[in-house]
Amino acid sequence: MSNVAVVGFAQAPNVRNTQGTTNGVEMLVPTLAEAFEQTGLSKSDIGFWCSGSSDYLAGRAFSFISAVDAIGAFPPINESHVEMDAAWALYEAWVKILTGEVDTALVYGFGKSSAGTLRRVLSLQLDPYVAGPLWPDSISIAGLQARLGLESGRWTEEAMAEVAARSLADATTNDRAQRSGDAEVAELLANPVVADPLRAHDIAPVTDGASVVVLAAEERAREIVDRPAVITGFEHRIDSPSLGSRDLTDSPSTRAAAAAAGIDGVELAELHAPFTHQELILREALGLDSGVRVNPSGGALAANPMFAAGLTRIGEAAKQIIDGTAGKVLAHATSGPALQQNLVTVLEGIR
Amino acid sequence: MTKQRAAVLGTGQTHHTTKRTDVSMPGLLREAVDRAMRDARVEWSDIDAVVLGKAPDLFEGVMMPELFLADALGANGKPLLRVHTAGSVGGSTALVAASLVQSGVHRRVLTVAYEKQSESNAMWALSIAPPFSMPVGAGAGGYFAPHVRSYIRRTDAPDHIGALVAVKDRRNGALNPYAHLRQEDITFDSVRASQMLWDPIRYDETCPSSDGACAMVLGDEAAGDAVDGGAAWVHGTAMRTEPTTFAGRDQVNPQAGKDAAAALWKAAGITDPLSEIDVAELYVPFSWFEPMWLENLGFTEEGSGWKLTESGATALDGTLPVNPSGGVLCTNPIGASGMLRCAEAAKQVMGRAGDYQVDGARKAVGHAYGGGSQYFAMWLVGADKPVG
Description:
A: about 350 residues, alpha/beta, Peroxisomal Thiolase, Chain A, domain 1, ten-stranded mixed sheet, B: alpha/beta, two-stranded antiparallel sheet, 13 helices
């Protein structure tokens, strides 16, 4: 199998509320322009397009069709869409390049969570016959998960607050972050619980945002950037949707994806953990030791644009290779209630 | 990068009807999946990955239903992808599954597409009016009827062509044990006498609203070689998209469809589709779309698709049988309709189409479109391995 590399990454400002439509066009147009400027490519250079978004988040059918207006898709384009985080759109694009049919691809994800009440919208991801009608919301489900870990001794509220403190401090240097700041663990723990045992700092913010990643076959990639972030592992797995039968304090799908991707020797990891305790689950499942730098961007706790946040993790990790900061990095994306579905990408700066 | 060969190892589908209240969504999917796995003679341990496709989540009222369907799809611990590209999604999903094999990433992939419209209300889902977007209005029929009127005006087609297609497809559907509408007694006169819905589309010229699912197992060259009686080899795939509206857009004969077809013929080494293709399963939700797509795909020159239909060439015993399964006019579980076209094409070249088998079918096309005639996905499968 040949190599495919990330050659460009751009993201819209991550904000609590945008004034645009739910089809993402207003966020995507400047972000696409930035990705083109960065790579020196134009619309006609792109062999395949793939996006990730959700009709339910947009409150309408076919939101991705209107998103195509951000591209100016005439002459017609070779294009596909996943109803998933755009990290999986990147996976589809990676597969497409591996078939040899195309040698470049542009992937984008977008979500305007401010259009509805996100925690309730996400309830609709549950089994519609048994769990869904009870309307447990996404934060309540994460609260149950956090509680299981606390009571079984897998983690502590202090460890959760440390994740928040580190993430928000790191986010102070990320100009696209929605939330950042310096806070002591003790200060954070003095705040009230929002959904017991979760406090505000444990929960990713509600974000409007979009991101774009450009892929190229390795040979083409080297014409575009000096140091492309070559994808050396790309795997995803899913766990059972049954919350009652899963061990919610573990993530077997993450562990299996990592084992298949080959993550030994990564220096840095961008993990898509919308809740502090989920980072702890992921670090454990990935077997990351304390020497691995986690989420220098601030991660999802600093900004969590639905259907783009996973792709953004891959973009942020790739940036560390492209700019020469790191040699081997890992990026992770998640989807579904309580870390049900997980994706692991390994990127390297191969000369 | 070298493309690997991919083949359809087996297909399966549900019995389709307006309301499948006898099964849940997982039950519906398993009906198709179990048939496909039996047809392909594979076990769960043979499946490396699952690709699911369906049209808007609002059609069932579940956000990303593949998440809750993971158990029923045997996907736990495996990769599961969810494709959504409007009405063409069943075709796009098959193409994504094929690419997972063609890329060398997987050896065997299960792909499934479905719609269970009875769980929600498709007309409601399509009628939400988001700010700053042109409303679709009276559902798909109202949207596409002006395209048909425009086609008739442009080509001077006689006004009975649509009824010819309806009679042919409904009678074909009577030969298909899984079809939703099976009307062996339908006649030209009864179609012409049926209620006018969206001029010029009459009641008998429009697709039903179906609950149903379709599944396929795709495999690599070694898996294809092992298929008893021969697999359906993927000779080419193509997807194209254009925006819904822009000044000068040709909605009757869209450029995206023409480009996709040209790419498909090129990939499969076809220079004269009409003589080289033995059977076509085209996405025809309203009768008149048969002649329109015959032109769009390049089977005939622009303006003469209706002549091909009128000549009887597209009948089951014609030179280019179109929709021998009965097509979308007989069965329309929206998200699965495109995959049904791809699966029916595969069945023909595998010689597994039963009473609607086209004699000597060696090369077949499966075609899907969606949105406002702006999303196209198609594949060409053959009884022989592709050359090169």
